[in-house]
Amino acid sequence: MEEEKKFKVLCLHGFRTSGSFLKKQISKWHPSILHLFEMVFPDGIFPAGGKSDIEGIFPPPYFEWFQFDKEFTKYTNLEECISYLCDYMVKNGPFDGLLGFSQGATLSALLIGYQAQGKVLNDHPPIKFMVSVSGSKFRDPSICNVAYKELIKARSVHFIGDKDWLKLPSEELAAAFAGPLIIRHPQGHTVPRLDEESVKQLSEWSSSILEDLKNSDNPQDSKSENSSDKDDVGVESAENLMKQVAA
């Protein structure tokens, strides 16, 4: 059998953490859910400018993507960060989707919104999907009026925690996307462990993303494929994951 193509996902970590830490956070999820994606975990471009919340939990170094004020309305080094990420994506991609936690999720949505409006990544294929964990919208009107000018059409799933201090901002970010899947969990500002229902939701969502990506790569094949067979595979995959997580 031919080895299946892996679609690339750029994974952006949270404030004053690291790519390695986000990789560890995502490892809470059963690997079968994302095993057909190639996950890339770069570090932020600036060393942490202060204390990290994961000191004593995960080893340094720690990084941040950009800096901001308490109201999250003024940003420092944001343009430099955006430029760096766009260059990174062109040189190391193309990337089919983005995954981000907290500051990384906020940045991911910004990149997708900006690309949709023709502001960035004009030399990179359209980003097709996003996984947001504890994300939020930028609040500067000059950014909002471009990035969220229209509903973002990329497929998206948003993890929103009942005890997350960014719960309401996460709701607002999800509302900026067309047809978002929202997965709620009882935890706080973290990448959550998934219960059986969440595993089923994320597995079915990722399976549909993969199907869309494969069909866009091979449009001539998609018409001849038996859709009921593909649906059965997706259901079987979800059921197997639920059994494995419950075990």
Automatic annotation (TrEMBL):
Name of the protein in its database record: Serine hydrolase domain-containing protein
Ranges of Basic and acidic residues composition bias in the record: 211-233
Residues covered by the Serine hydrolase domain: 5-198
Domain of life: Eukaryota
Ranges for region Disordered: 210-247
InterPro entries: AB_hydrolase_fold (IPR029058), FSH-like_dom (IPR005645)
Pfam family, one: FSH1
Alphabetical list of SUPFAM superfamilies matching this protein: alpha/beta-Hydrolases
GO cellular component: cytoplasm; nucleus
GO molecular function: hydrolase activity
